Amino acid sequence: MITVALPKGRLMEETVELFNKKGLNIDIPSKSRKLFFYDKDKKYKFLIVRAQDVATYVEYNAACIGVVGLDVLREHNNNVFELLDLGIGYCKMVVAGKDEHCFSTKTKNIRVATKFVNIAKKHFIRKNINAEIVKLYGSIELAPLLGIADCIVDIVSTGQTLKDNGLKVIEEIFESTAMLIANKTSFYTHNKQIKELVDIIQ
Ligand code: PRP
To answer: In this predicted model, what pLDDT tens digit does every residue of 109-135 receive, in sequence order?
Structure first.
C-alpha cells in the first residue's frame, strides 16, 4: 500500500473526482473529521492535510505521494520530485491593486501584502523594486483597500474576489495547476506502485 497526501478543500474534491474518473474507488465522507481513508481496494491510504503541508508530509516520507498546487510548491520549495501535472486546480499567481499605477509611481519602498512571501520577494527582486512584504494569512484583498499595502501578490481563480473588492490584475507572475509529487527515496523504493498510479492517472 502507498500513502497519498491530499490537500483539504476545493482541490481535494477535484482530485478525488479525477482519481475516481480514472478508475480508483475513493469515497471521502464530507462530514467526517477522520484524517485518513483507504480506497475500496485497499491499495492506497489517503491522508487529509492542509494544502501548505502536503509537500512537507511527502518530503519527510510520511506520504510517498502528494497532490499540491504549483503555487504552494513554488512558495515552499520542498525537496520532492514533481511527477505529473494533473491539469486541475488552475489559477494564476498575480500582482493586483486598485489601479495600474498602484506601485509604479512610488518613489520609496512599496508595500506588498501576501500569503506567498517568498514568491512575492523573488518577483520584486527580479524587477529591481524595493518591496516590503506584509505577511497575511487570508482576505489579502482587504490590504490595499485599508491602505496597509500598495498591492498584493495572490492567486486568482475565477477573479470574483478581486472584482468584488474593486481590485485589478496588474501583472501575471505564473500559471498554476495541481502537481503529483513524490518523496525522492520512495520514488525508487516504491517505483513500481508509483508508476502504476501515474499510469492510471495519466
Ligand atoms: C483564495 C485567494 C483569493 C481567492 C481567489 O482565497 O487568496 O482570495 O481565493 O479566488 P477567486 O479568483 O475565485 O475569487 P481563499 O478562498 O483560499 O481564502 P482566504 O482569503 O481565506 O485565503
So the answer is: 899 999 999 999 999 999 999 999 999
End-to-end Cα spacing for the chain: 20
Q: Which of 13, 161, 175 to mutate to test the pocket of ligand 1 (most atoms within 8 A of CB)?
A: 161
Name residues contacting ligand 1 (CB within 6 A): 138-141, 154-161
- Ligand 1 centroid to Cα of residue 139, in Å, is 7
pTM of the full structure: 0.93
- CA–CA separation, 151 and 58 (whole Å): 33
All structural domains of the chain: 2-89+177-201 (3.40.190.10), 91-176 (3.40.190.10)
